[in-house]
Structures
1.
Amino acid sequence: MLVLIHTTDLRVLLLERADAPGFWQSVTGSRDPGETLVQTAIREVAEETGLDARQFPLRDWYHSNVFEIFERWRARYGPGVTHNTEHLFSLSLPDALPVRLAPREHLAARWLPWQEAAEECFSWTNSAAIRRLGEGG
């Protein structure tokens, strides 16, 4: 799951990973058993930012990427799992709102114009999604 949180003027929220300082990303997470993709997006946004995604337009892009999981994070998955499917959502806010970080997951948050945010992300799928958002995707 990847959720791009952005303002109507396309400033994008990035979060710095606690387990990899210097790695910036959008909200990410895994689906719990029995959850729909929308429910996962709402839960992950709440857990990672304190925002209630039900209060703002949440868009399912009906797009997913398959990517190889970085070696350092493979232990989180089952034995032999090397790839992940990431479903793309976006959440549009009227303005940059303060967020409440989950300290075990993130060290810092910042709002950047979409072009800068795309450059800051360590994940190619996250960067590509931000570029698509900025280009009207």
2.
Amino acid sequence: MKRPNVLVMMADDHRFDAIAAHGDMTVKTPNMDRLIREGVTFTQNWHTGGYSAAVCIPTRAALHTGTCVYEASLHKDYRDHKPPDVRTIDPDRVTLGQALGKAGYHTYMIGKWHNDHASCNRSFADGAEIFFGGMSDHYAVPTYDYDPHCQYDKSQEHIKDKHSTERFTDAALDFLNHYDGIKPFYLNVAFTSPHDPRQAPKAYQDMYPADKIPLPENYQQQHPFDQGHLTIRDEALADFPRDEAQIKQHISDYYAIISHQDHHMGLILDALEKRGELENTIVVYTADHGLAVGQHGLMGKQNMYEHSVRVPLILRGPGVPRGVSLQQITQTPDLYPTLINLLGIDIPDTVTARDLVPVMAGHDSPHSHVFSLYLDLQRSVRDIRYKLIRYYKQEQQSGTQYPGTDKVQLFDLQNDPWETQDLYGKAGDEQIIESLVDALQKRMNKYDDALKNVPIVF
């Protein structure tokens, strides 16, 4: 019997809660809602962070290798004070595409890769509209056709006067409408939305009048302390201090481009259904990371708050329960071994993430804690309820305006999901802190983290 197809749709900057079925009553996402209604959503899913201000680079490498950020790329030189190579996926790691190709799948890439050319080519046998960059005007994204010789010279770039989401969707529809291979397929569609510039067509912008947009409960005019990158590009997208009307407009634009993407995801699902393949396809929706868009006085993803580290992880299809919402803690790279298990393929030895098939069957999470990091400025750990964030001051950057801060935060995510009440230093939480610190220290020691010898708590 033919194995199920695999369709992975991935967004750029889409935080977990900006989906109607995840509780946001303003944003309209009927197709994402459908996937959640007909499949499984992992509601406490984190990305693993990265040694790059462009967090999407390492988080994508982690997903495609089924490893954590320490293992996925060639960033290891960072500990030797050399420029980190976070873009190049470790060639010793078997990528998801490689594993599926070896198992007899036709592998096809569309959209944003953002890692090195070689890892793309060893992951996919073909593709279209491949974007190796990080961000671009959505109406001028430079893309490539798949080159089997891996010679992606700039002269081969092409730009079309059409929105990136529409271009990537057109390529996916073309593939689905014409693919007649005997092999099952693995189709990866990586959108550049809802990354800025948030250029949704006017019809979608009109869905969200800015003056009707509610501000999030954790909106602040400015972040209360220096987290190390307060003036990075993402943060400079809005004025300092933050203005309520301006933030509402940013949220409006964010929702508009999400709804535009959601519509085109629906077209892909419709095409699958039309060719009779939807029920024999494992459909995945996830994102590389989230985004603040005004929460905590921040705009970007270079932080450890839930709006930035918590991302969607939704599965629908053969072997996946229907209409199930799971609260166990997970991390995005867990998708790799989970898919492999669902397809009945042996998980490569280079994969260190954890299979979530038992979780879908009702078992506890394979993780007692999950972790994320940002450069040598922030480390975070959480269990099912509590999160600890450690901020570091970079003494070698003492001449800069924002060197960071030596600080610890503790949040009770069960009672304070908006992370507005820092519990660190309050009596009664010592055992909670000790447990989180112990887990984080063991993690940092295991991977020879550059900050492993710096005390986590004071």
